[in-house]
């Protein structure tokens, strides 16, 4: 097993442990990290992981986490040529940034 695959297995184990402990913030952050790695080869899997991440950040009422995740979802849709969906998520992200007083903040 390569170093990347080994790291992803450890990340999966961390996500399971965070979920079991009810540590939803750490779970969401780990899911976002895993989605970033998955998105390099499988944007659809990344989008599914980011959907779980988005749900958690919304449950936690973490608008910055939501904005980051919306931006990431847009990037994955864009990678798949789904420009309408990417634009929709980008608009939501920008609106959240404006509401938070972050102006033209780029959440990368």
Write a compact overview of the structure shown.
This protein is mostly helical. The protein has helices spanning 3-21, 24-38, 43-59, 63-79, 83-99.
Tell me what the structure shows:
With 108 residues, this protein is an all-alpha fold. It has one domain: Alpha Horseshoe (Serine Threonine Protein Phosphatase 5, Tetratricopeptide repeat). 79% of the residues lie in helices and 0% in strands. The termini are far apart.
Features:
single chain; 108 residues; mainly alpha
Strand content: under 5%
Task: Specify Rg, calculated over alpha carbons.
Answer: 14 Å
Q: Low-confidence parts, pLDDT < 50 over ≥5 residues?
A: none
Order of helices and strands: HHHHH
Largest sheet: none
Give the helix/strand layout.
Blueprint: H1 3-21, H2 24-38, H3 43-59, H4 63-79, H5 83-99
Helix pairs in contact: 1-2, 2-3, 3-4, 4-5
